[in-house]
Amino acid sequence: MLKVAYFLIHTIQPLVVPVCFVTAWTLIILVVWSLWTTARDSVSVAKQMHQIPCTGCQFFTDDYRLKCTVHPSVANTEDAINCLDFQPKTNPMLY
């Protein structure tokens, strides 16, 4: 029995190191790739969100109950990027 176990250990041992090496590097590459795609996607979403013009509009109220007096359901969403009713604030001290 020990001779069989000894034989199996010495025949499998040279294969264990390369398999572990490839597995470890594959795991590292997958983690780095996942972090890269997450960062890339979050930057693209942030760029799109910065195009929302609601805070510079005169109809924007800055109140969580009624964000916009013209389009309350669309305010601060992606649908507000090309809002036809956008009017820039002329004097922020008036509002």
Features:
95 residues, mainly alpha, 2 domains
Q: Sheet bearing the most strands, described?
A: none
Count the domains: 2
Give me the Rg, rounded: 29 Å
Please estimate the helix content. Answer: 40-55%
Number of DSSP helical runs: 1
> Secondary-structure element sequence?
H
* Overall body shape: rod-shaped
Contiguous uncertain segments of 5+ residues? none
Average per-residue pLDDT, rounded, comes to 88
Cα separation of the termini: 89 Å
Brief summary:
The protein has 95 residues and is mostly helical. It has one helix at 2-49.
Structure description:
By secondary structure, the protein is mainly α. It has 2 domains: 1-50; 51-95, no CATH class. Helix content is 51%, strand content 0%. The chain is built from 1 helix and no strands. The chain has one helix spanning 2-49. The chain is rod-shaped, with a radius of gyration of 29 Å. The N and C termini lie far apart (89 Å). The model has no long low-confidence stretch (mean pLDDT 88).
